[in-house]
Design a protein that fits this description.
Oligomer: single chain
Helix content: under 10%
Number of strands: 13
Number of domains: 2
Distance between the termini: 45 Å
Largest sheet: 4 strands, antiparallel
Strand content: 25-35%
Strand order of the largest sheet: 6-7-8-9
Structural class: mainly beta
């Protein structure tokens, strides 16, 4: 078992969520035996700031009630009157809080970088510190696989997108 605490020493409720196979099978990650990630609710985060949390191993047993179960559905309910809706392509479409719906169009976008030879300012290539998009933003994918995990203290949902469709 482990002790999970905030910087003030307050014990945190935690959940264990399986690490996606896409991450487990990432080249160069072969030395990590981790199969779960630790998820918890971070409170009172300052804008553009941080809070420290720590984990202290006390034994090899898992904490009670720390596991999560995958759930299916296109509407997921959370505490405090929050509902999240997904379309048939796995993308988030609406968040409802206390009965008030808010439509959301969710996707991840990318830009093709400008090609150049850097001989003059107008021919600068897009690179590490230079952002010069060549065209309009393109969606990474038109659909996603959404997996939702519910535990006793936290819920987590993750989107798994295929690789960029039109590189």
């Amino acid at each position: 078992m482990s002790k999970y605490c905030s910087c003030t020493g307050k014990q945190q409720k935690v959940q264990l969520v399986p690490i996606p196979m896409e991450v487990v099978q990432t080249p160069g990650r072969v030395m990590s035996p981790a199969t779960y990630e630790l998820v918890f609710h971070a409170e009172h985060l300052p804008p553009l700031g941080f809070r420290s949390y720590y984990v202290e191993k006390t034994s090899t047993e898992l904490p009670p009630d720390s596991s999560t179960e995958p759930v299916q559905g296109t509407q997921i309910g959370f505490e405090q009157g929050v509902l999240v809706d997904f379309d048939d392509k796995g993308l988030m479409t609406q968040v409802t809080k206390n009965g008030a719906p808010m439509e959301i169009k969710q996707n991840f976008l990318w830009y093709r970088g400008a090609v150049g030879d850097n001989s003059v300012f107008e021919k600068r290539a897009s690179g590490a510190y230079i952002f010069r998009p060549n065209g309009t933003a393109q969606p990474v994918a038109s659909e996603a696989t959404t997996k939702v995990y519910k535990g006793k203290s936290t819920h987590a949902f993750r989107h798994l997108h295929p690789r960029i469709e039109n590189p």
